[in-house]
Amino acid sequence: MSKRSGAALAIPAWAWLLIFFVAPVAMVIWFSFGYKPGIFGTHANDVLSFDRYAEAMSPTFFATFQNTLWVGIAGTLLCLVVGLPVAYWMAVKASPARRGLLVALVMVPFWTNFLVRTIGWQVILAPEGWLSTTLQQVGLIGGPLDILYTRGAVLLGVVYNYLPLMILPLFVAFDRVGPPLREASKDLGAGKWTTFFRVTLPLARPGVVAGVLLVFIPLMGDYITATVLGGAKGNMVGQLVASQFQTAQNWALGSAMAVLLIIVIMLTVAVGALVVWLVTLPFRSRNRLVIGDAANAAPARPVTTAIAAIRSRPAPADEEVSA
Amino acid sequence: MTVQQSQPQQQAPAPEQSKGPGTTPAAVRQHRRRRPWSDIVLNVWGVAVFAFLFAPIVVIILSSFNVGRLLVSWQAFGFDSFLAIASKPAIRDAVWISVQTGFIAAIVATLLGTLAGIAMARHPGKWVWWFLGLLLLVSVTPEIVDAVALLPWMVFLGQDLGLAIFNDGIVRLVVGHSLFSVAVVSYLVRARLVGQDAQLEEASADLYAKPFNTFRRVTLPLAMPAVLAGFLLSFTLSLDNTVIAAFVQVSGTTPWPVYVLSALRSGLRPEIAAVSTIMLVLTLIALGLVAYVLRRAGDSAADIARTMSGG
Description:
The complex is a heterodimer of chains A (323) and B (311). Chain A is an all-alpha fold and 323 residues long. Chain A has a domain at 62-249 and 288-320: MetI-like fold (Orthogonal Bundle). Chain A has helices at residues 3-7, 11-31, 51-56, 59-93, 96-111, 114-125, 130-138, 151-177, 179-187, 192-203, 205-221, 224-230, 237-246, 251-287, 294-297, 302-310, 317-320. In chain A, α5 runs antiparallel to α8. Chain A is globular and about 75 Å long. Chain B is mainly α. In chain B, α4 (89-122) packs parallel to α7 (169-194), α5 packs across α7 (169-194) and α8 (199-206) runs antiparallel to α9. Chain B is globular, with a radius of gyration of 24 Å. The longest helix of chain B has 34 residues, at 89-122. Chain B folds into two domains: 15-63, no CATH class; 86-308, MetI-like (MetI-like fold, Orthogonal Bundle), CATH 1.10.3720.10. Chain B has 13 helices and no strands. The chains are: A mainly alpha (323), B mainly alpha (311). At the A-B interface, α1, α2, α4, α5 and α6 of A face α2, α4, α5, α6 and α7 of B.
């Protein structure tokens, strides 16, 4: 097969994604500059303006954007804090024979219907549910459990729903670091914590980045969790966009909100990356290993070389972020 | 990860077994004698998080044996909800629509994704980066954006352009569900083939096999584990899809998750838990098959984890 005819194999996928992904999204961006004509129309584009964006940023909707960002950031950080030790435990402490089983167990909730899992939490948290009655009998709480339909319930729901997406890439990253480097670090006199923070964690950084992105991006657009567990108090932008399209029939405003959502996500990721880069700057410069004469050794970057040799296969960042 | 089985192991296998080939027995012994508190904390934390992950699933499975009228309030144990499914055509139809859609969407996604993955792995060039960029964009776009974009687009194609096929409920669902799956299958197939040399294909060509025969008899079998895994993942993803389905669906072809979503407002009945339990069992069987296929193809637990999380 010649080179050109071979690349043609991708044409069906190109066409499919251009027609059913790029074109529709472009259309939404186009709609966002229009307006809603009268009660029965959904959109019109004869006059173009940024008015819908101004409307979407008005105080009524701005609070929802704020709330979404809060849930998004808090949820992602909680997922990281909860998931990181679990992933480390699975990859380093659990016996290799049991590792496959543990991975499979993390995947079961991941592949159970999202909506059904969330409904499971609704049943657990219900004021008349088991948890509530048990807690009351034990005497931990005075009245019925009052967490359903609050922002706390939404936060619990999103941490639950996206936790597997954090654990799996972290597990892969910790697994890839492998025991030899940890052993070497210990042999060179480093303690447990030093080894973890100066060897294992820096090497697992691609997994952390992938996990954070895999959790944060879909979480920001999530509206199922908020609908099931949040009621009126747990408003998310996703619900707002959905209601503009389904109930209010204002496609122009809904489109502007959708575009704003994407912009907010990208901005937050960019700002977050910058903050992390700045915060870890002193640690990274301290971590650079120089052997012998600094002037000679610097270009060789022994640590990097060692890492490159130990990693069995290269992992392009784009593959990590795919789900 | 290689663990030397020949290593002397007097003690019972403990978590520290993962030390690997670099560990001397003495070091292992010394390690086992004192179990640091941090390991105990990690174990407890791990088990607690797993319990957290399974709590709502267990609750749903238990609730499916509830005889009461509502899902939330437990009355008595019984199989009524499973029997009730049979007498409710709306539930049956919704599940059937979901299964049909999942099947067709998986075929479409596997076909497009496999071809694209093979093209990326075997005929690289500048275009691959553009294509990977597009796939990345597809996979990081929040579902709700896809959903609100597809709704007007389907109306535009079906009514303004007069392409009647896009007014069909199943077609709309298949299109919506296949987008993300195309990206997943492309990643999987590419990753599989990039990891293997093209020598077999070259040999086949040297032995005068026609390009099509090389493709069918050499390239495709090489990619097969990824193709199968991609197919089953696409099917599961489609079964699970709620957001896009809620927007593009046409009345009359309501898939199962959208039926559940609308039932949220009218009160959840135990039948919903019963169907969920059945579908959970089916999903587990499908996933078990994926893991089995990948394991037979020689993947480690970490490889399977990477595959399952979508690349």
